[in-house]
Structure of DUF4440 domain-containing protein:
Amino acid sequence: MPQISERICEDLLLRERALWTALTSGNPGPAVLKMCSPEANLLFPQMPILTVDGDNKILNAMENKFHRFDNYSLDEVRPIVIDLMAGVVTYKITAARGSTAYNASASTTWGQGSDGEWKIFCHQETLL
């Protein structure tokens, strides 16, 4: 039986891949919003900080073609367990839309609620 830290790492990796599946979909807003804690901050290159509520709402910013790629891969992925209910996943993202390449380093901080669901507290991408 895997140790608890191994199970947390597996959960975090599954959630991160679900996030990228949502981010690269045709309409990412609703799926990404469902993954976010009420206090979540999402930091994407050359954009204002996105939040659940306020002037820069996730749903408004993630309309059609937001982060829409033909393919992507996560490299140098490193899950970090903070404690039993929190963790961070760091990695490099390589993606493409047609002949346009996207290369960034990224991290997502996840927290687990009392219901057992992992939620995003902060997601950040930095262009390379």
User: Anything to note?
Assistant: The chain has three helices and six strands. Residues 90 and 107 are 4 Å apart (CA to CA).
